[in-house]
UniProtKB/TrEMBL annotation:
Residues 159-330 form the OBG-type G domain. Transmembrane segments: none annotated. It comes from Tissierella pigra. NCBIfam families: Obg_CgtA, Obg_CgtA_exten, PRK12296.1, PRK12297.1, PRK12299.1. An essential GTPase which binds GTP, GDP and possibly (p)ppGpp with moderate affinity, with high nucleotide exchange rates and a fairly low GTP hydrolysis rate. Plays a role in control of the cell cycle, stress response, ribosome biogenesis and in those bacteria that undergo differentiation, in morphogenesis control. The gene is obgE. It is an enzyme of class 3 (hydrolase). The lineage of its organism: Bacteria, Bacillati, Bacillota, Tissierellia, Tissierellales. GO terms for cellular component: cytoplasm. This is GTPase Obg. GO terms for molecular function: GTP binding; GTPase activity; magnesium ion binding. It comes from the Bacteria. Signal peptide: none annotated. It is found in: Cytoplasm. CDD domains: Obg (cd01898). Its EC number is 3.6.5.-.
Amino acid sequence: MFIDVANIRVKAGKGGDGVVAWRREKYEPSGGPYGGDGGNGGSIILKADEGIRTLMDFRYKRSYIGQNGEDGRSKKQFGKGGEDIILKLPIGTLVKDEATGGVIVDLKEKDQTFVIAKGGRGGRGNARFATATRQAPGFAEPGKKGEERNIVFELKLLADVGLIGFPNVGKSTILSIVSAAKPKIANYHFTTLKPNLGVVRVGDEKSFVIADIPGLIEGAHEGAGLGHDFLRHVERTRILVHVLDVSGSEGRDPIDDFYKINEELSKYNIKLKDRPQIIVANKMDILGAEEGLQKVKEEFEPKGYKILSLSAATLEGIDELKYEIWDLLINTEIVYETFDEEFIHEDEDTNNSIIVKKEDGKYMVEGEFIDRLLSATYFDDVDSLRYFQDMLRKKGVIDELNSLGIKEGESVFICGYEFEFFN
């Protein structure tokens, strides 16, 4: 089964805590702070890998959690960092935020990497807080939590080559012949309800992926006949093989069919209008096909289209088609589509935001930075408490509370804890 959309949850590892330790060695009577920093948490990293073709693996495992960093040690030794998790994705995967639908990253290049969830920074040990006026800090900093988010993978690069055309023109049969794919084939419309993939081998180190795009119909760009589901798979195929029934066995005009399909493509995405196309005149074994082929050549050869005659039933022209596709592929630059979707711009400063407000008569201070500061404070330690107060002043919290009208002795709630305010 081909999976082209996957919803997963990623959570990076927490940073290790810094430690409080003291130097206690012979001939070192002064000692001093000796606590090391915690290790950074492991990140979740996305990587575009040309060896991966589907999102199948993410159907069975949907949660990925990074390794936590180790706590710091004495003698100023750092804790070991958590190992990163690398998720390999097919080239052409679009990564979106599940909540907003905004695009986070478009993995369109080989070996492209992106940190989707950054591991938490390790906390600083007490040796880091020593100053000329604070020579024996009795506090350290806890590790920061890793980033966590729910994301959606959407695979738009389906294959190098897309087989397009009206239903029942022979696309599935051609796919089964040129590759090892075994699509369901029958003589009725919409046999194919999902894209079928196949790998075509032309020679040593010469192969390409081909997809039978389910039958397109008029109105597909508006969603008719599962049109949107089908058309998005066409967007990133490098070339198109347009299969026409030149025998007219379905009672349709192959020239009219060609223009209708291309109109649907251009209405969905105008850039598809210029995608390289090979026209395959199929069903040459049926009576009347020669006449149809001649009309197709007269119409399209002057416009620069390469036209190949083929009979999927008798295998006539199959090898020529494979070689023609390969020649066009190696001479076609890989160009990926840009998207109208809004990209989410990551902002590291958002994690340092501080909210100071008055709500229902209560003064409140919130924010991730304040939460980390509070967690790092040892309120029984004078130096630690002084550091906490100094940081509130440096970050403008005290000034903002004053501007809101707080008075001496009133309560202020900092991340849920109640403190008495003194200026």
